[in-house]
Amino acid sequence: MAQGSRGLTWPVVAWSLWDWGSAAFNAVITTFVFTVYLTSDDFGDGAASKLGWAIFLAGLVVVVTAPVSGQRADRSGRRTFWLAVNTGLVVLCALGMFFVRPSPDYLWLGLGLLAVGNVFFELAQVNYNAMLNQISTPQTVGRISGLGWGLGYIGGIVLLLAVYFGLINPEVGLFGITSEDGMDVRVSMLVCAVWTALFSLPVILTLRDAPREASRDGNLGATGATEATGATEARAGFVDSYRHLFGTIRDLWRDDRRTARFLLASAVFRDGLAGVFTFGGVLAAGAFGFSAGDVIIFGVAANVVAGIATIAFGVLDDSLGPKPVIVLSLGAMIVAGSCVFLLHDQGTLMFWVFGLVLCIFVGPAQSASRTFLARLIPEGEEGEIFGLYATTGRVANVLSPAAWSLAITLGAAVTGVADQDDAMHWGILGILAVLGLGLALLLPVRGGTREDSALVAEVPAA
Question: Rounded distance, CA 94 to CA 79, Å?
Fold first, then answer.
């Protein structure tokens, strides 16, 4: 990472705008609009459970491909190229969602596009996150990373409001679009595609790929193995990539047990945090009777409280340390989620109250997780360890979707309901189980400070 001073330069803005654009997939497609659309009555019984399995299978694909994708991009020096390719494929999936009509015959097309889009979105994020060191210094990395994260929240709010007031809420939206044949949601998918493409262009056009030779440092990380050169390096496959990955994990476990344990714990609870947003809109509509418009309004409120809370809890992170913030956040989410389950028959007000409490603590837990690790990393090893942080997170991506679907299936069996959608509120217990497991793994890990790390004093507030 360069040592010079870098403020709010154009490369920083261009990089951050990709996060703004990615809100189209995170907030509109995956969380509050398209998944809610797919799990509506128009698509038949059991759609919510099938959604969970589709996302679960996408997670398995990411587990297999993400380490290889990231390592090959590092070795070739073509991060921008692969960011462009993967983002372009996400855009194509969003365009394809326009053709998903409200009928059971189109359910698997919708689930397939959503699953494939999830895979390529995750692969795009591998390359996007790897670019952070190109546009930051040790003194600005926290602020720049936070800028991108914050723009993601704000972008989600802006796009949700635009879609809600322009297409979904009015009986007749812009250009005469109505809800007939699902056209309001389907056109929203076209808007998402354009939004993603438009705000991805700045980073793709600004951060050029380095020559192949300039991308080699002769070091593959903690394994201490040197990279192969020439054509052999370019053709490194799955076995070689996983050999290096497992070697890094082995050496971390041997030499830096605290970091290894935190990587495991954070991978689990971060997947639970993602599950809150992935299935929150589905739960609101399926178990609490929210309309499509209500779900979007809730999504806007959720992004607002998450953004504000993340900034506010940064003060606690600096004064108390990141571990208390994470423990407090996860504990509060488990209590709030339990209230959602126990009070599911009390109407929409209960979900508004306890659902927003859940969202308040998602951002602080994510931000504190990142600063916890930053305080542990010895100087000069940030890229390697944060790369492993991303990889372990993707390995755990399968937990929440599987736990969601299994909990619904179990709930239907316990209550004896014929339609699994009538037991949808049980899905929250699956997400809480993942959060609880992550919390249990975190508790034995000593607090995130390291006297010999320069970042102890330099990590800025969120």
Answer: 22
CA atoms within 13 A on the CB side of 69: 28
Name all domains of the chain by residue range, CATH numbers in brackets. Answer: 10-207+235-458 (1.20.1250.20)
Q: HSE on the CB side for 108, CA within 13 Å?
A: 1
CA dist 420 → 50, 70, 202, 276 (Å): 10, 38, 45, 20
Q: How far apart are CA 390 and CA 197, in angstroms?
A: 24
**Which two tokens mark 204?**
């793709």
Tens of pLDDT, residues 239-293: 776 677 677 778 778 878 888 899 889 999 999 988 887 788 788 887 787 887 7
Considering the entire predicted model, what is its pTM? 0.72
Quick one: residue 224, left, alpha or beta (phi over 0 = left, psi -120 to 50 = alpha)? left
Extract the tokens encoding 322: 């990141």
